[in-house]
Design goal:
- The chain contains twelve helices and six strands.
- Helix 7 crosses helix 8.
- The chain starts with a helix and ends with a helix.
- The longest helix has 21 residues.
- It has three domains: about 80 residues, no CATH class; about 70 residues, no CATH class; about 130 residues, no CATH class.
- The protein has about 300 residues and is mainly alpha-helical.
- A hairpin with a 5-residue loop joins strand 5 and strand 6.
């Protein structure tokens, strides 16, 4: 039977454990191999309080401590210990957005609190000679001690599988000879489209232009070729620039590589364009486009909408 002193001591132990943790940072990182003592030494300076917390932990937890990053906002020691043993770690997010280019990706990666073991995307299988188009756009969750390569390799494998399925169900056309061509076209559709509905129509315009021996004349390709120094304004000299390999106003066929990460819907549109006679389109300023068959109709649309 517990004595009065023992009950009183246990009451103090549990009272301390219920207190909120006074920690100056929003998260607390537990590295692999950290012991309970090393964790308490970071949180507490007073010996008796650390002793009480060790006793509480030993009485209530048999599980091992799981390393990771833990949220410390308005949390008690009881909650913290429960998190430590259940692995309720803080999940950070890395968003690979459709429309991103390699410069956007590098900038986003530089802001991650993650172990970057994939410098310049060296961890990727890279079946092609480019990065844009090979990663699957999505939100990926990670912890502070995770490796970037794990996310990027997984993203690449997802895009590879999706691309395989799209390729099997594509409309065969002599102008889209490979998966690389399909990725390139999908990336242009991604940057040209303002909504999902117009994507198959935009795709049809590019197919029709290729079939008719016309140049694609897509502004986003010019912009990509000017990156990372593009200042936001396409000049007349840029349109006639013969040195820009992505300038579809002067080159025939597709540019050499994708210009952005395409979404699933852009890939589907690139593989299954609508059946139209459209050769031109112009933005209406609301995310939608006006499509034309003749150049005169296109000029009228430009006059009306731009």
């Amino acid at each position: 039977m517990l004595s009065f002193f023992s009950l009183s001591f246990l009451g103090i132990v549990y009272s301390i454990a219920r207190e909120s943790i006074n920690y100056e940072k929003e998260t607390f990182i537990v590295d692999q191999g950290n012991s309970l003592n090393s964790i308490l030494n970071k949180l507490e300076t007073k010996y008796l309080r650390k002793l009480a917390l060790r006793i509480y932990y030993k009485l209530n937890h048999q599980e091992i401590i799981i390393y990771g990053e833990y949220v410390m906002n308005d949390i008690s020691y009881i909650d913290f210990f429960n998190d430590l043993t259940s692995g309720n770690v803080f999940q950070r997010r890395f968003v690979i957005n459709e429309g991103m280019n390699i410069y956007d990706l590098k900038d986003s990666i530089s802001k991650l609190n993650i172990i970057n073991d994939c410098i310049n995307f060296s961890c990727l299988q890279n079946k092609f000679d480019f990065v844009e188009g090979t990663l699957y756009p999505d939100t990926y969750f990670y912890s502070v001690n995770d490796f970037l390569s794990t996310i990027l390799i997984f993203s690449e494998s997802r895009m590879d599988s999706f691309l395989d399925n799209i390729w099997k169900n594509r409309i065969e056309d002599e102008n889209i000879k490979s998966k690389k061509d399909l990725l390139i076209l999908a990336s242009i559709i991604e940057k040209e489209s303002g909504n999902e509905i117009d994507k198959p129509l935009i795709s049809s315009v590019f197919y029709n232009r290729l079939r008719n021996g016309m140049r694609l004349q897509a502004d986003p390709t010019i912009i990509y070729g000017l990156l990372p120094k593009f200042n936001g304004d396409i000049k007349k000299a840029d349109i006639y620039d013969q040195t820009n390999p992505y300038n579809t106003y002067v080159i025939d066929d597709l540019p050499p590589t994708p210009i952005a990460i395409p979404s699933k819907t852009s890939l589907i549109a690139a593989s299954q364009p609508s059946e139209t006679n459209f050769l031109f389109f112009v933005s209406k300023g609301d995310g939608s486009h006006y499509f034309s068959v003749t150049y005169n109709e296109h000029l009228s649309a430009i006059s009306e909408y731009q």
